[in-house]
Design a protein that fits this description.
CATH superfamily of the largest domain: Type I PLP-dependent aspartate aminotransferase-like (Major domain)
Number of domains: 2
Structural class: alpha/beta
Number of strands: 17
CATH topology of the largest domain: Aspartate Aminotransferase, domain 2
Shape: globular
Low-confidence stretches: 1-8
Number of helices: 14
Oligomer: single chain
Strand order of the largest sheet: 4-10-9-8-7-5-6
Bound molecules: 4'-deoxy-4'-aminopyridoxal-5'-phosphate
Helix content: 25-40%
Length: 423
């Protein structure tokens, strides 16, 4: 790939980059190299415009006003729901609940489904590679209900050890909550098989799709998952909006999550009845502007084509791994096989703390994340306190990977010298 132009037929990464104003900025006098997409993504101009357009042209509350602006806002809000539904092939827009983020979507399931469906002695199966947001809610639920948490372990390659699945799932398993793609290892889990097996035992499956929906085609009907959670801000949309998809019959049966305006049908002094799904789960004034802008992000991604985005990320990840594995003193985490690995590369360097790697990279305008990535049990599994993590997206170029490698070599030079001086 030369001059930042992708080889893939029909996918021009240079043209894609033109759509993202922030990718043209400089940091410390150098062009920004943004490789922290697993934390949050950058936004194309159409998403930014969508926010500005809402606030400048039709800002009004939804579902209430009998006047033009409110009707416009309501139509745009519900239109975004329909587009998000289409994006993940949900059977209807009513299966889409807008939340603040993945974390809130998972907690919604914990409260609105978990309280009535998980009892003392029941089991919840999660994995060792979960983000804290798909771990802590289940710890809390298990503690409250007297249920048992069971764990799928991770092997050295960074894959779930599914041999144990038949022993771990039992007649008492109510829920398997597992990540579709690991935000640390990049592992794409074989969730379809897990879902099939869970259903045989009558257990439901919640997929944490925070790292899959933004990066690859995801079809909830094909997967047959019961719940699926993701965040708008990781898929080119604004912060403050997330999505819970759930099968319609589950949403019908679930109790409300939060009480308040908009989620009711009839309110008496002592009790109330609930609005239909999805309003039952969207109490209060929703995040109208950000939901509408998420609709714009979904349109943008659909225009790029999710298969193209995925293919581009496979090529970029291959390019990164090929170079990174040649660096002496580096340890890379996660599987090597690219068809089942996403564009996330965690690494450590001998003698250089991950935070120092991130700081040196920042001095070169390369943004990566260092830390436990909200996966402390996984850090413990690999015996590291933290890793540095580079994560890619539809706009990442090979030149940016080259800048990452230069930064890694600089970190080794700087800290190699420091180590030599201190001996
Ligand atoms: N799950 C995974 C796999 C994630 O990567 C993240 C974000 N890092 C989350 C959940 C939580 O997302 P949010 O902070 O948007 O709720």
């Amino acid at each position: 790939m030369e001059n930042g132009v992708s080889d893939e037929v029909g996918y021009d990464v240079r043209a894609v980059r033109q759509d993202f104003p922030i990718l043209g900025i400089q940091v410390h006098g150098k062009p920004l190299v943004y490789l922290d997409n697993a934390a949050t993504s950058q936004k194309p101009q159409v998403v930014i415009d969508s926010l500005v357009h809402y606030y400048t042209r039709y800002n009004a509350n939804v579902h209430r006003g009998i006047y033009t602006l409110s009707e416009q806002a309501t139509a745009a809000y519900e239109n975004a729901r329909a587009r998000v539904a289409r994006f993940i092939n949900a059977p209807s827009p009513e299966c889409i609940i807008f939340t603040r983020n993945t974390t809130e979507a998972i907690n919604l399931v914990r409260y609105a489904w978990g309280a009535d469906n998980v009892r003392a002695g029941d089991e919840i199966l999660i994995s060792e590679m979960e983000h804290h947001s798909n771990l802590v809610p289940w710890q809390l639920l298990a503690q409250e209900q007297g249920a048992e948490l069971r764990f799928l372990r991770v092997n050295n390659e960074g894959r779930l050890m599914l041999d144990g699945l038949d022993v771990l799932i039992t007649e008492k398993t109510r829920l398997i909550a597992v990540t579709h793609v690991s935000n640390v290892l990049g592992t794409i889990n074989p969730v379809k098989g897990i879902i099939k097996k869970a259903h045989k035992y009558g257990a439901l499956v919640l997929l944490d799709a925070a790292q899959s929906v933004p990066h690859m085609p995801v079809d909830v009907q094909e997967l047959d998952c019961d719940f699926l959670a993701f965040s708008g801000h990781k898929m080119m949309g604004p912060t403050g909006v997330g999505v819970l998809y759930a099968k319609p019959h589950l949403l019908e049966a679930m109790r409300p999550f939060m009480g308040g305006g908009s989620m009711i049908r009839k309110v008496m002094l002592a009790e109330s009845t609930w609005a239909d799904v999805p309003q039952k789960f969207e109490a209060g004034t929703p995040n109208i502007a950000d939901v509408i802008a998420l609709g714009a992000a979904v349109d943008y991604l659909s225009d790029l084509g999710m298969a193209n985005v995925r293919e581009h990320e496979i090529q970029i990840t291959q390019y990164a791994l090929d170079q990174m594995r040649e660096v002496s003193g580096i340890k890379l985490f996660g599987p090597w096989e690219l068809q089942t690995r996403a564009g996330v590369v965690s690494f450590v360097l001998d003698g250089v703390h991950p935070h120092d790697i991130a700081q040196i990279l920042d001095s070169e305008a390369v943004a990566v994340r260092a830390g436990h990535h909200c996966c402390q049990p996984l850090m413990r599994r690999f015996n590291v306190p933290a890793t540095a993590r580079a994560s890619f997206y539809a706009y990442t170029t090979e030149e940016e990977i080259d800048a990452l490698l230069e930064g890694i070599h600089k970190a080794q030079r700087v800290f190699g010298h420091a180590i030599e001086r201190s001996v």
